[in-house]
Design a protein that fits this description.
Layout (H helix, E strand, L loop, with lengths): L2 H17 L14 E2 H9 L7 H10 L5 E3 L5 E4 L19 E7 L3 H7 L9 E3 L3 H9 L4 E7 H6 L5 E2 L5 E3 L7 E3 L1
Antiparallel strand pairs: 1-3, 2-3, 4-6, 5-8, 6-9, 7-8
Protein name: Probable RNA 2'-phosphotransferase
Organism: Hymenobacter saemangeumensis
EC number: 2.7.1.-
């Protein structure tokens, strides 16, 4: 596979494994997995002929590690970014005392009033360090970093999870646990 073909296949895989499996007649299980032979067959019916070695190459060389095989390599899924409902199996974890949320100054008024909401994602995203949070906030304008009293929240019964790439996740952060730094 050329680099261009590899990128093109990766984009197509993101589309079917995150958003529209039914487009090529696939189904994902509740954890987002689909069968590798079934995937290869479904692709070949759409004139995308890939060997198992090609698919392994696409997965291994992906710059953001967007896909993963299961242990015996019979199933594949996207690691994140789904719009279809899947449970990726994040484990509940005790958070540190303080986590950070990077946002932009124009959202702060609303956030302090109604808390941090997950908007279109599956969770509110929190960072373990201030610098990472600042980078996240910068995507949306003049950044500001808010502190989240995570250990206190956990003690009050809120669940926290950590993704494979280190992002902290929770359902909602009530205003009482948010402190401007
Ligand atoms: C804001 C990227 C008004 C919130 C990044 C944020 C991150 C509110 C925006 C990851 C609010 C949602 C997540 C409220 C929250 N009123 N605004 N009550 N509550 N907001 O993109 O945290 O490339 O869904 O502050 O690196 O910015 O996708 O979340 O500004 O890790 O892998 O609503 O996305 O990673 O924006 O970013 P987002 P986020 P990926």
């Amino acid at each position: 596979l050329s680099e261009a073909e590899t990128t093109q296949i990766s984009k197509y895989l993101s589309l079917v494994l995150r958003h529209k499996p039914e487009m090529i007649g696939l189904a994902l299980d509740e954890n987002g997995w689909t069968d590798v032979p079934t995937l290869l067959h479904a692709l070949s019916r759409r004139q995308i002929t890939l060997s198992l070695a090609d698919l392994r190459h696409v997965v291994a060389t992906n710059n953001k590690q967007r896909f993963a095989f299961n242990d015996d390599q019979t199933r594949i899924r996207a690691n994140q970014g789904h719009s279809v409902e899947v449970a990726l199996g994040y484990e509940e974890k005790q958070p540190p005392a303080l986590l950070y949320h990077g946002t932009t100054v124009r959202y702060v008024g609303d956030i302090l009033e109604e808390g941090l909401k997950k908007q279109s994602r599956h969770h509110v995203h929190l960072s373990a360090d201030e610098a990472t949070a600042r980078t996240v906030g910068q995507r949306r304008g003049k950044p500001i970093v808010l502190g989240v009293k995570a250990a206190e929240m956990a003690a009050a019964g809120h669940s926290f999870y950590q993704s494979a790439n280190g992002v902290w996740l929770t359902e909602h952060v009530p205003p009482a646990f948010i402190e401007p730094l």
